[in-house]
Write a structure and sequence with these properties.
The protein is mainly α and about 300 residues long. Helix content is about 75%, strand content about 0%.
Length: about 300
């Protein structure tokens, strides 16, 4: 069961690696409008399931704590992320925002039944170093003039790691509730869009396809897979492996012609892959026969 949950959590990381490519292909749609559109699309599979199986609507009856955590995680993360990008250089803001896997691995030691081992920490730090290699390939410098953006990026990382760790404590809450999180995030994003942005629609079929793809995968199915993974899988392994997302994203951009090849990608590949394997040593190491039977 734990291995299955971990593997399903990995699929969320794979889908998030498509985020940059699909965003680049989606044209000039403003961030909050994009969130409103894609989270509405992301809620559709859950809505269809609820229509087919109306009895599952009961799973939406949750405590205010669950709703505040879920909506705060999805909406809060994306609002802070785009605030960071608007008020600081993308490279530095992205680097700070991507501290969340490290926060998850270290913070997991506070969860019941979890133990933080040295290889979890080393694996997460190796992944962080790989991410730094990727995002700083065109230069890196922190300027005090962008304090607001840097602060938003840090809060962004803290918000997503906090959401992921708190979700683990809701292991009895069905993943169906993510449908409600997506709908609420879409509505709140629409409010922000109407108040702060000018509407810009995708210009052609290719941009519309990218928007739909975002809603179905990295801003849709990925959140359902992540919810199931952090509740039922090894959250320390998933957290360390999350550093693969920026690497895979860069490789996809290179393969698609949106970015050029760079030797730093190879270095990042070694750091991120090695760190993930190290963090996953408990899952990869053969278990004694007695333990395997017990599990």
């Amino acid at each position: 069961m734990k291995i299955r949950g971990t593997l399903i959590g990995f699929t969320a990381i794979l889908m998030w690696s498509l985020l940059a490519l699909m965003t680049a292909a989606s044209g000039n749609v403003p961030p909050s409008q994009m969130n409103a559109m894609t989270f509405a699309i992301g809620s559709l599979p859950g809505i269809v399931l609820l229509i087919l199986k109306p009895e599952r609507i009961a799973f939406l009856k949750q405590s205010p704590k669950v709703w505040i955590t879920g909506i705060g995680g999805l909406f809060g993360y994306h609002f802070l992320y785009f605030t960071a990008l608007r008020n600081a250089p993308a490279v530095e803001a992205g680097l700070i925002a991507y501290l969340w896997p490290l926060f998850i691995v270290v913070g997991s030691a506070l969860l019941p039944g979890e133990r933080l081992r040295w290889y979890h920490v080393v694996g997460a730090i190796a992944g962080l170093c790989g991410t730094i290699t990727i995002v700083s390939r065109n230069g890196l410098s922190f300027d005090g003039a962008y304090t607001l953006g840097y602060g938003a990026a840090f809060l962004c990382a803290f918000t997503w790691s906090g959401y992921s760790l708190m979700t683990r404590s809701f292991e009895r809450v069905s993943t169906d509730v993510v449908t409600g999180f997506c709908l609420a995030t879409s509505v709140l994003s629409l409010v922000c869009h109407l108040a702060l942005e000018t509407t810009v629609w995708p210009a052609d079929g290719g941009e519309w396809a990218a928007v739909v793809g975002l809603g179905l995968l990295p801003v849709g199915a990925a959140f359902y897979a992540w919810d199931y993974g952090v509740k039922n899988g090894d959250i320390q392994i998933i957290g360390a492996a999350s550093y693969a997302a920026p690497l895979l994203s860069t490789l996809i951009l290179v393969a698609s012609g949106f970015a050029g090849p760079d030797w730093r990608i190879l270095v990042a590949c070694l750091l991120i892959t090695g760190g993930a394997v190290l963090a996953a040593r408990d899952m990869l190491r053969p278990k004694p026969v007695g333990d395997a039977v017990a599990e």
